[in-house]
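Practice problem: predict the structure.
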Amino acid sequence: MNALYNISIFLYSILIKITSPFNIKAKQISTGRAQVFNYLKANIRHDKPIVWLHCASLGEFEQGRPVIEAIRKEHPNYRILLTFFSPSGYEIRKNYDQADYICYLPADTPKNAKKLIDLVRPELVFFVKYEFWHHYIHQLKKQNIPLFLISAIFRENQLFFKKTWWAKWYRQMLFGFEHFFVQDNQSFELLARIGVFNVTRAGDTRFDRVAEIARNGKQIPLVERFKGNNQLVIAGSTWKPDEELLAQYIHNNPGTKFVIAPHETKKANVERLTSLLKTPVICYTEATEDSVSDKQVLIVDTIGLLSSIYKYADLAYIGGGFGVGIHNTLEAAIFGMPIVFGPNYLKFNEATSMVKLGVAFPVTGYESLQSVLSPLLSDDQKRNSIAGECTRFTNQNLGATQIILNKVFNKI
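Answer:
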């Protein structure tokens, strides 16, 4: 099985190199990985013990971030290495100032795993959510370096819980972890079923992250002026299918204002979105407080503002639900409001929980969007009731970060 795994890793690495001249993400991975060991040799210092945290991409970084920042605050005697698998995480967070070292994770080969771990010599290692790399896990176990999985979710259809010969080999990786911090009871029970008992139900660290954002959220006078006395829907991290759906509603409801923050803020995509909207619209980077008040739609064509903008919303629409899956619902939920998104949300525990509570509403097309948005926007009492329940839900799920730190650092 090791041979098959190694072949698959080798073929993936070759594919990345072959496609890198034609694909920007492949080029970023290939170039980034090639620089890792020189970067670490030049920069790693061992005057303090090192904590290594690895996440796949930007979404997982948001789950790892509260842990990094809590370690920085409560255990300042540690240096922190942050690694990414994906360029969509690394390229956006490569200058994150709470980590001492930031780089890509080299391909999961025996040589790379040993070389990286020997260079870094971490005292503690955290992988986030879904990250399972055979040779890194094996090498950490071999060197008696404790490895923790945080904000983890396990589902019955995962390979770990199958009865095939491949699944049996794959399942052995679980026994290389010191402890699992899972998000829900189902994950706890699934692991127990296969003999894994070093598990704590801690919850999702993103709740702690969004609560911190809400506490420190900045005022945005431009959005305040844009909203005025109107009802405001914030549409965050939208894709083309979301925007086409919303455009129809916007055109039919000129009295409601919309802020749209597309997932992709490149000029061509913003121009496409602008041309789609047959109503007064302005982009954030071009707007002034004097020019926004008579517009129906404000397009946020820059990054870093969305999490603060949500506090001005009466209702939030979260994008991605007509693609591979919805984006971060918690950034909106923490401010207490009804949440709407497309049908592909079932992989996200917080979203399914909010649907069951009646504070989030999946839609499948324009008719269902209209049947959800219009009643909510016209009924202040119902919307306020939902907002209160939403706030209770987020508050009840705070504390995962501290559970993790207490468990990990009390063992040292």
